[in-house]
Amino acid sequence: MAARARVHRRFSLQTRVVLWMTLALIVLGTLLYALLEWDATLAGMSTFDKWMNAAFQSITLRSGGFNTVDFTGVEQATVAVMMVWMFIGAAPGGTGGGIKVTTLAVLAAALPAMLYNQPRAVLMRRAIPNEIVYRAATIVTVAGLITAISVVIMLATHNLPFSHVVFEVVSAVGTVGLSLGITDDLHAIGKWVLIVLMFIGRVGPTSLALALGAQKAGRVTFPEGRLMVG
Which of 55, 140, 175, 225 is most solvent-facing, going by the fewest CB within 10 Å? Predict the structure, then answer.
């Protein structure tokens, strides 16, 4: 307990959440990629090389956008996992895109708070202000809507596989730069969509978070209204 207390005093909540979330995503991504691709894109490699490549892909999905295997041959389940990792992205303050690992952590903390009817989300023994939870939910919602609209536009203007289009769009939103090999098949509309998405992915979430965090003067208070949801 004393050692844990010293760690809490030494590192801020932001630092601890980023470190733990980054570690969890790297380890889980490595395990999932190795499990799904052991006899596919990792076939023919030594056991050590398989784990190293799996770890590299897990890390690069949320940052650099490099690949050491042929992504055109990955399993469909792997493509789904990769899209989730790209959508999550990196940590705030860095050059990576995505909704950010802290946003995911806040929403994960809010889930049990809602299930058990708690007034505040709790993360690492710290109560998270409700406005931060709302901000995180808004960022994810806006990013999801932008992704969905872009996928529809791409599918309406291109005759390409659905999974490949979604992968390309999520990669652009997360500013990852990975592709399943359809970039050369895109015409002007598709390329402009990706350009706009990469700009939004890099600037949008940060700007949105700052805008949502700004205090507005002269707010109007309205009476409460209740709705049944779910």
Answer: 225
The three-state secondary structure class of 89 is coil
- Give the pair of three-digit tokens for residue 219: 């707010």
Q: Largest Cα–Cα distance of the chain, in whole Å?
A: 65
Closest CA to 75 of 35, 21, 15, 27: 35
H or E stretch including 123?
strand 121-123
End-to-end alpha-carbon separation of the chain, Å? 40
H or E stretch covering 143: helix 130-157
**What would the pLDDT profile of 182-217 be if each residue is shown by its tens digit?**
888 898 999 999 999 988 888 766 666 666 566 565
Q: Is 215 helix (H, G, I), strand (E, B) or coil?
A: coil
Instruction: For 58-103, write each residue's pLDDT tens digit.
Output: 998 887 778 888 888 899 999 999 999 999 988 887 777 888 999 9
- In angstroms, the CA 195 to CA 172 distance is 8
Question: pTM here?
Answer: 0.85
How far apart CA 205 and CA 165 sit, in angstroms, is 22
